[in-house]
Write a structure and sequence with these properties.
With 226 residues, the chain is mainly beta. It is built from 5 helices and 15 strands. The strands form 5 sheets. Strands 2-1-3 form a 3-stranded antiparallel sheet. The longest helix is centred in the first third of the chain and has 6 residues.
Length: 226
């Protein structure tokens, strides 16, 4: 069966007689089996004011909602006109844009423009300053390496916490003593109903196990007693 099909084209809406399947393939609107173009007029789709970006400015055009969306515009409703629809530009602000040399601040970007550059938008109306995109503060962080040795690294407080480290404050610097003694010794840990358990550790690791630390001593010398 065939019927009238209203198809949108560059010249407007055109009526053709075709099957429902063929009409759908052309994104048309099928008017029903047995209808003809004579008794099924194809009214043009409604239009309205649409604000689109062009050449760095915002301009108003009158198009259909679908045509407006295709140009990433803002449609103001069917029947609206450019005369009563001012296209105000979107608000702008400062944006911290990542670069190989670190974050760089750029002024007068919209939130969408900032996001398109993987930046951090600082808010509407903000302006760049010398500290707008400053990198986060760092400091000395004591972490335990896979061998169980305390090591000092310079990182942010957040990064230190992610490694279960001890952060010593913004601006602190690694030194040979900031993480405490790294001298190994025997650590005696009391076990209820059993003799004390001995293992080799640093003083800080032993304290974490609630043990008694014996620096420069090995478990072979039996420092924990019988």
């Amino acid at each position: 069966a065939t019927g009238a099909c209203c198809v949108q084209s560059s010249g407007g809406v055109t009526c053709i007689v075709t099957t429902q399947t063929q009409c759908a393939a052309q994104n048309g609107m099928y008017q029903g089996n047995g209808t003809t173009c004579a008794n099924a007029p194809c009214a043009p789709p409604p239009t309205g004011a649409c604000c689109v970006a062009s050449g760095g400015a915002i301009m108003c055009i009158v198009v259909t909602q679908q045509q407006c969306a295709a140009q990433n515009g803002m449609y103001h409703g069917d029947g609206t006109t450019c005369a009563n629809t001012p296209c105000t530009p979107p608000p702008t602000g400062a944006c911290c844009v990542p670069t190989p040399m670190g974050p760089v601040c750029q002024n007068n970007l919209t939130q969408l423009q900032c996001a398109a550059q993987n930046g951090i938008y600082l808010g509407n109306g903000t302006m760049c300053s010398s500290t707008s995109c400053a990198p986060p503060a760092t400091g000395a962080c004591c972490v335990t390496d896979p061998n169980g040795t305390l090591t000092c690294i310079t990182t942010t407080q957040t990064q230190c916490a992610a490694q279960n480290g001890t952060y010593h404050g913004d601006g602190s610097v690694c030194s040979s003593t900031i993480c405490g003694s790294t001298t190994l010794g025997a650590c005696c840990v009391s076990v209820p109903g059993a003799p004390p358990f001995c293992f080799m550790s640093t003083q800080q690791q032993c304290a974490g196990a609630n043990g008694t630390f014996h620096p420069n001593t090995t478990c072979q010398s039996n420092p924990c007693g019988p």
